[in-house]
Every structure is written in C-alpha cells, then in structure tokens.
C-alpha cells in the first residue's frame, strides 16, 4: 500500500521547553479521508506544521508519498496543499493574484496558473470576485479562497486545519460536498476538526491525539465500536406513567435508554412492545464520536 | 502535482514584490524624489552657492552622487524590511515556506525586489539631479554596478532586520538610529579629507562611505577612496550578508517555529 503520509516517532519540543509531540507514529493511506482529532493544545497543529515545514521537528521521520522531508523536501512539499486554520493571505492582494502567485511558488507556468485559478475559483464560487481585494471578501469566501489556493498546484494530499470553524451550516455542507468530490477524484484528505460529527460523517480513518501522544489510530468504524454504551432518547406516541426499570423516564412522552454493546435497537423495541410501549421516533443523545472522544481523552489524562 | 521549476517560483516572487511597491508608488517611489528635490534646492542651490568648490566641483555637483546613493540604500532597505516583516505579520509568509521554493530562491526574490526599488528610485533622483547640476557621468557602467551592489547590500540588511523584527517598531528602529546616522556620516555632504585623521579612520568602518565614493567616481570621476578598494569592500559586504541571511533562513529564523 502507498502511504500519503507516514509519521514515525515524531517529536517536538519548543524553545520554551513545551513538549508538544512525544514521539508519535501514524500513517495515512493514499486516497484516504482521514481525521486527526484532539483537544486544544493536543499537538494537532504542531503535527500539521511539521508536515508542511512551518515547524521544525525535534526528532523522528515524516514521509509524504515516500518522499522524506529530510532529504527530498521540495518533492514532498509539491505533494501537499494546506488550508490553514487562520486566514493567512495578503489581504490587500487581488483574489486572482493570491491564487496565481501561489501557483507560481509551486513552479507552475503562468498560463497554466491562470487556467487552474479559473477552474478552482469557479468551482468555489469566487470567479466573479477575482479582481476584488481579499480584504473585501466575507469570512466564508475567504475560507473558500484558501481552499482554491491550496488546490491550484493540484496536490495529491490536501490538509485542512479546522476548515469549517466559524462557518455557517449551509457553507459547511457545501464544503463537505466539495471535499468529498475532491477525495473521490483521488486526492487524499487529512482533516482536523472540532466538529466531531463532521469527522464521523466524512472520514474513514482516524487518529486521536492527546497531550502529544496518539491515543487511538484505527478505522472510524473500529474506533466507534469501542464505544461500550450509547444513550438514546425515545419519543413515544402515547404517554407512559410507569415505565419498566431498564429505561429512565424524562417526561410522559419521553424516555432515555442506555444501549450496551451486544444489544440492538430491535431488542429494545421488542422489550418495550412487550410493555405495550410504542416508539414514535428516536435520536442518539450525544454524538457517538464525541462520547468516545471525551472518554478516551479523560482516561488518558487520568493515567 | 506539477513539476517544480525554481525559475518560475523566483519570477513569481519577484513579480509580486515589484507589484507591491509599484501599487503603492506614492509611498514607495515618490517620497524620496520629493525629499531629494528639497535637498537639491536647499543644500545644493541655496546653501551650496555660498560654499567653495570641493575637488573642483560645485557643492551641488559634489553632493548629487551622495543623494542618489542615499535614496538607493534607504529604499532598498525599507523595501525588504517592510515587505518581509509584513508577510510575517499577516502570516502570508507561510505561502512561501510551504511551497517547494528553496531558501535561496526566497532570498533572491526578496533581495532582487528591494534592489529593483532602490535602483528605480536612484534613477529617478538622478534624473531630477540632472536638472540641478551638470554631471559628467564619467563611468556609467561603474555607476550602475556600484548602485546595484549598494542596493543589494542594503536589501540584504533590510531582510536581516525583517527576519528578527517582532513588531512594527522594530522595523523603524534600525533605519532611524543606524541607517540615517551612517548615511549622514558616510561622506554624502563632505569629503572625508575634511575630517581629522581619527574620524577619517572611524569613517572607514562605514560601508556607506565606500558606496558614496564609488558612485561619486562614476558620476564625477573623483573619490576619497581608491575605486577598486571601495568596490572590493562592497562585494565583500554583499557576500558576507548574503551568506548570513541564507544561513538564518535555513535555520528558519523568522519563518519557522
């Protein structure tokens, strides 16, 4: 299997003595849609910083599509497109210049740079704004501009650091669709996000990082299976006054139930039917990944 | 993924640098020209007409090379220091750092950008100077070469300042407290032979002295310092600054954490 990214024993200690990464190892397969999760200050941004050469590593190895960052830096960098968390373009530049300049920095000849800029600015709904200055764009447009800029050299690996932070629901959904398309077309995508729902919906594989260590690295399905218990809220058609012991009553029309591993929702429905309780609808009380995430990071912090 | 071509990356960076100062030409090109017109009128014309000739030239003729050089060095310096620091400040420096551009290409792009601004302003001031003073333009090639070396030297110094600056105050401290005194003490307005032997020796430590005299030789054919010695000193300054800047960029000073 070809790896878009392989990280071995990566460590980083900042000049002030903060040990941001304590020898982490993980890999991302080519074509994957990968989530890198962790609480604030866990080491996500440092990891991305090292991958993109914005941060000097203290130890370990990083390979991008088999190109070693230590020995084949230019080749490794050519493979990566980065959408950072904070806006980092020259706000006084024109939109088109931001994208074509970036293409130039990747060694793309000018006619091709314009062709690509048109393609990606159009796809991201910014072509009409191409002659405007970046400072005039709305927040959502600025974020889309950063995505267009990251794609202009058609990288094999696209890294997005919190791409939907502070973005409204409509735009978030359109970005999700766009990223799915990009991924389907063959680009490997690595995403860090605070919206765990986003990671659960989009990503096939996941690494959870906490206090500079990887505490989970598996497929999304396998990680979610580690969740021993999920809580569901059940909405009822008819009121229940004396519910059975295995459910908790919230009000006459609402019950809460813990579904332990091994038990299915069908079992629950059957058991409730036996008590003459009919479920109208139900929902998961918390996001599953969120539940697991909190559990894992808490357990790790208590070690 | 496209094959990376350093030449294209270099021209993209240089283009964006030149476009930046051309876009804001009222802040980057015009002020020096206006200041120098005032120097020509007040020092050259009004005050200078009361002074005796230096090395056989009128005071106006004598100070013109120095004024041209003053514009070249301050503009080259200010271009790299402000451009580099501003990119760092708004983090668009990341665009360069994540790209496959080598530090050598980044260095050349910024330095040549500053050099072009310095030479452009120098040329404008020289054109204005030609209206005020008759200049022989004795050694044109040497004049251009000297201005080029001076512009590079001060672009490199500006870049060094830009790498270490932590605030906008830091990018004005060196120009105010170091660059301006060095320029005024670098023989723009006088011949160092007018100084006592002690201050003459001190003056030899000032790189601007070599530049002003080399340009004076190019424009008028006179110099306080043997011309090849002056040029060699300039080449040496440029080489050392270039090596230091490249080393610092390779270490990631100001661009990586």
Main features:
heterodimer; A: 303 residues; alpha/beta; six-stranded mixed beta sheet; 10 helices; 14 strands; 35% helix; 29% strand; B: 11 helices
Low-confidence stretches of chain A: none
Q: Helical percent range of chain B? A: over 70%
Q: Could you tell me the mean pLDDT of chain A? A: 88
Mean pLDDT over all positions of chain B: 90
Low-confidence stretches of chain B: none
**Quaternary structure:** heterodimer
Distance between the termini of chain B: 27 Å
The spatial strand order of the largest sheet of chain A comes to 6-7-8-3-9-10
Most extensive chain-chain interface: A-B, 41 and 32 residues
Cα shape of chain B: elongated
Strand content of chain A: 25-35%
Query: How large is the radius of gyration of chain A?
Result: 23 Å
Radius of gyration of chain B: 19 Å
Tell the overall outline of chain A. Answer: globular
Helix/strand-derived category of chain B reads mainly alpha
Number of helices of chain B: 11
Q: Concise description?
A:
The complex is a heterodimer of chains A (303) and B (257). By secondary structure, chain A is α/β, with parallel strands linked by helices.
Describe this structure in words.
Chain A has 303 residues and is an alpha/beta fold. Chain A is built from 10 helices and 14 strands. The longest helix of chain A has 16 residues, at 169-184. Chain A is globular and about 75 Å long. Chain B has helices at 6-23, 25-28, 30-47, 59-89, 93-98, 103-132, 140-164, 170-184, 197-203, 207-220, 227-251. In chain B, helix 3 runs parallel beside helix 6. The mean pLDDT of chain B is 90. The interface between A and B is large, with 41 and 32 residues.
